[in-house]
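Supplementary Note 3. Input sequence used for the single-chain structure prediction.
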Amino acid sequence: MKIRHLVVSTFLTNCYVLIDGIEAAVIDPGGETQKIIQELDKNGAILRYIILTHFHLDHTLSALKIREEKMASILIHEGEKKFLKFEPDEFLTDKSKIKIGKTYLEVIHTPGHTKGSICLLGDGLIFTGDTIFKDGFGRTDLPGGSMADLEKSLHKLKLVLKAGMEVYPGHGEVFKYGV
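The predicted structure, written as discrete structure tokens, is reproduced below.
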């Protein structure tokens, strides 16, 4: 699987374009729609999914425009239902599997930053949205946030993360866990 890392919007949100064979997915398209579409077109892959790690605007801003142009499905955790201002195509649950080409990503529900925050676990890598960053974790003082939930989610992730695993956060630099 190829991973293209784009930094979008004034919020400096990490958007990831995943390509495996002829299929693609976009994680957290938080703005700069044309920049994301150009990256997809450059690689010639068919966009299947727009995966949102949580409902905040800096991670969702371009989702509807990309869905309209590329006919892809928007996926988000069911815990975000009451916070959404649009209708996704599918609600995810903990342990849902998303297939892109030959690659599978497993949904790990990690509430705390929001009720429906998720991480996406792949082979030797994880996309963490705003759950964890290189030097910390997401804030909990916005609607749907909970420090108690985040502490449980961080414990849950400690059981999954392995030293050397590539971590792709929602903001900041990509890093290797525990290195």
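The first helix runs from residue 33 to 43. The longest strand covers residues 13-20.
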